[in-house]
Design brief:
The protein is of the alpha/beta class. The chain is about 30% helix and about 30% strand. It is built from eleven helices and 16 strands. Strands 3, 5, 6, 7, 8, 15 and 16 form a seven-stranded mixed beta sheet that branches. Bound molecules: NADP nicotinamide-adenine-dinucleotide phosphate.
Length: about 325
């Protein structure tokens, strides 16, 4: 099968196509023929030696966690999926999944049936970003109706799902994004939008119950002052720095780190929301596998509206 590998850490130029044997599913695993694979910031970071490189170890390795495809074979013990099922998932994270390849094997419960109303390219855009938004809001901070939620980088992969899940939970949603993306963000559920390029968010918003910070560094520290005492700041990239911990303690705010994990059950709930028309998947661009380097370059720009996807099946 074709796959994208790398022999060293570095820029997109280290990525190269290789030909390797198709993997075999072990008991409790499924073999999935990958139709499309989503790309995320962690792919570009890990390629360069950051991200989860410390978990993957030295190259060679195959990046890619978001896959949508068709079950080809099931191992002994798999009861919930069968060959021919169309599935999507974020298998193995943060271990290697090898999503930028024609086939992957993984525990069956890392997958769910894909939403039926979108194609594989759009389904591949969902798992990592949507699970991040879902697990933050529902599992980490237990969002409830009427809460005020501020989402930084609301127009990105994670952000646009977080806006929609928070809205669906009955929250009042404020998002930060550049001005060109404001109309679209209002359409998908933001009650208020802040142009972070022209306005300091702390000058125009306050009293948030939850802040989902997808920027990191100083942005997370500044977010403490717009959070109510008793509220929570989720520091997604970079986690909780000593500076953030101190600022949070002084204001009586909780600052927490976050890491997404595989979750087939949540993906079933998310697929239902997509199929009911309650959640929209925004795909900015689909790249052929031969343009994987361009996909990494666009990902690294941190400017994408919604998600970027690589189409793998011929
Ligand atoms: N810990 C975890 O489990 C986990 C999981 C998922 C993601 N992450 C991390 O979370 C971050 C976001 O991921 P993502 O997939 O959503 O990234 P992304 O899709 O690449 O985000 C792109 C968006 O960021 C916006 N943006 C850039 N700088 C901004 C700023 N200063 N203020 C507001 N918006 C800004 C851009 O909007 P404009 O063009 O309008 O600026 C663009 O729409 C990344 O660092 C990623 O590694 C962590």
């Amino acid at each position: 099968m074709r796959a994208i590998s790398q022999d060293e850490f570095g820029g997109p130029e280290v990525l190269r196509e290789i030909d390797i044997p198709r993997p075999e599913p072990l008991p409790t695993e499924v073999l999935v023929r990958v139709v499309a694979a989503g790309i995320n910031p962690v792919d570009a970071k890990t390629r360069a030696g950051g991200g989860v490189a410390s978990i993957l170890g030295e190259p060679p390795f195959i990046l890619g966690w978001d896959v949508s495809g068709v079950v080809e074979e099931v191992g002994h013990g798999v009861h919930t999926l069968k060959p021919g099922d169309e599935v999507y998932g974020m298998p193995w994270f943060p271990r290697q999944a090898g999503g930028f390849a024609e086939y992957v094997t993984a525990p069956s419960r890392h997958f769910a049936l894909k939403p039926t109303t979108v194609d594989h390219d759009a389904a591949a855009a969902v798992p990592l970003a949507a699970l991040t938004a879902w697990q933050i809001l529902h599992d980490a901070v237990h969002i409830t109706a009427g809460q005020r939620v501020l989402i930084h980088a609301a127009a990105g992969g994670v952000g646009h799902f977080a806006v929609q899940f928070a809205k669906a939970a009955g929250a009042h949603v404020t998002g930060t994004a550049s001005a060109a993306k404001h109309d679209w963000l209002r359409k998908i559920g933001a009650d208020e939008v802040i142009d972070y390029r022209s306005t300091r968010f702390e000058d125009v918003t306050s009293d948030q119950d939850i802040v989902v910070d997808l920027i990191g560094g100083d942005n997370a520290v500044r977010s403490i002052q717009v959070t109510k005492p008793g509220g929570t700041v989720v520091a997604v990239p970079g986690g909780v720095s000593p500076e953030l911990a101190t600022a949070a303690e002084q204001r009586g705010v909780t600052a927490i780190p976050f890491l997404v994990e595989p979750d087939g059950r949540a993906l079933t709930e998310i697929a239902a929301l997509i199929d009911a028309g309650k959640v929209h998947v925004e795909v900015e661009q689909v790249f052929p596998l031969s343009e994987i380097k361009a996909a990494h370059e666009r990902q690294e720009s941190s400017r994408a509206q919604g998600k970027l996807v690589v189409h793998i099946a011929p």
